[in-house]
Amino acid sequence: MLRFSGDDQFVDTFAQRFADHTGKLVSTRAHVVALQLVVELAHHYGLRPVDTITEEQALDPYPTLNRWADMAWVRCRIRRVSASRLYDTAREYSLISGRLAPYTTDLSVARRAFRRARNDETLAALVAHNSEDVFDAVGMKDAVDASVSNLKNRRAELMARLSGFSKCAKEQGHHAIFLTFTTPSRFHSVHRNGNQNQNWLEAGKPSVRDAQQWLVKTFNNIRKKADKEGIKPYGFRFAEPHHDGTPHWHAVLFMTLADIKTYIKICRHYMLADSGNEPGARQHRFKVVFIDPRKGDAVAYCSKYVAKNIDGFAVGNDHEAGKRAKSIETAARVDAWKSDNRIRQFQQLGGPSVQAWREFRRVREPLEQDNQMLQDLTPEQHFALENVRMAANAGDWQAFCCAMGGVQVRRNDQTVRVSYGIPEAMQMLCDEDGVLKHKPRGRTQFGDMASDRPMGLMFSQVFILTRAKDWLITSKEKWEAACQKTMEGINEQFEVLKAEKAYAFMEYEEFEQMRLHAICDHESRVWLLYPDTERLAGPPLGCEPHGGGLDPCH
């Protein structure tokens, strides 16, 4: 029996038993039959495998079987499903509400905090080092803290990009609107007073993920219709929970005043297309606020929504969670809610690629025009490329948008595009031994093809490598042992050289080489070095006693 509320020891034991059982099925049954049995068993325990075996899985069942036979993978699957099932159960019993526990349960918050602490311990015990140089290393905890996984860095980057969009809008005469998208009442489990919502019960108790999917589908319809009308808004959308955990979206968008009127009509049409006549739908389903620049720009208006859903920095009270709820405390509840239901909180709408922005921020040094890879670029092209790099390095999202072609430029028309993988021509760069420095995409530990990862940037058929090193992740103990082994090997080499008096031999060889490139002036008793291998005019090399003296000019 699988208990979704079990502790880590229980989960580890169950995952190991499931993985061992899968291994036995693989060794005793035909692989396609084994895959069917494993999928049925996973369904029995509620682990949510694929509903049907795809044609690709039937032809190559090994990657899927390898996953279910791996204890660590099964454990991760159990934890993910457990968090979701526990959350759904809490909503079913009305344990999540503004009166009891806003956004999520106290148990979920505690589990999330415990998991974060365990992750920090794990990261602190790991080291990432260059595959070619074991001494080129960084602690995984330091690497994560320096990335956007750090809440402060994530908030700072979001605010920088939002500020850049606001400046672009001001420069182009665009206006800002703040939109709120809410799901129909059947997705809300409880009312403000804590009583269960009858519409939710009659609808079959839809989950938080069902509500999120409804918002995604509806917003996609809005986006497609707006695109047909030639409206290209840009900005951000934020997902956050109601007091009962039901998601709703906010969005700050920039566009022309004429486009705003049409866009609002499109939004209202699609938001009210589903259950638009139910009580309160026209008042709450879709709301619009015109941001008055005289009272404050979009950055000031949205800063609290960004901070409230990340770390609660400088927000104050969270009125959605309750009258006296502090945002710095409820931010942890929002984080647990997002994790349990796998909600994407922030999404950029329009504008250039943020991945290109992050890749360029890896290129700290100027791109010199005499670089061998950039020699075919015209001065104008080199200026355009360097302009993008400088904007990204300066953290100036407005300048980056302009350098990439504008806030409304299509992805394929942007100045620079992210390259996933390395071009074939670049693959031919070899080291002295003729071994490829950068290997093509390989396979995962389970046997299927690994996903492409960003390796560089493409500009006018020119590839710019941004990830020149292959990093290996290992434990600190193994890394320290590898460093010690390397140092022992170096010490052994020095001991051998010392024992064979190789240093004296090397000095003698160097002395003889110097004599071949020098002339002795016997009378002046000096040696004169000359750089060329061809002999200068004068007496032959060898310092014969009767050789004539050299002219000092020589």
TrEMBL record:
Q: Which organism is it from?
A: Aeromonas hydrophila
- UniProt keyword annotation of tRNA-binding present: no
Q: Which InterPro entries match?
A: Replication_gene_A-like (IPR008766)
Q: Summarize the protein's role.
A: Possible endonuclease which induces a single-strand cut and initiates DNA replication.
Please give the family membership noted in the entry: Belongs to the phage GPA family.
Question: What are the alphabetically sorted keywords of the record?
Answer: DNA replication, Endonuclease, Hydrolase, Nuclease
Protein name stated in the entry: Replication endonuclease
Question: From the record, what ranges are coiled-coil?
Answer: none
- Which Pfam families would you find in this protein's record? Phage_GPA (PF05840)
GO terms (BP aspect)? DNA replication
Boundaries of every Replication gene A protein-like domain copy: 51-312
What's an example of a GO molecular-function annotation for this chain?
Answer: endonuclease activity
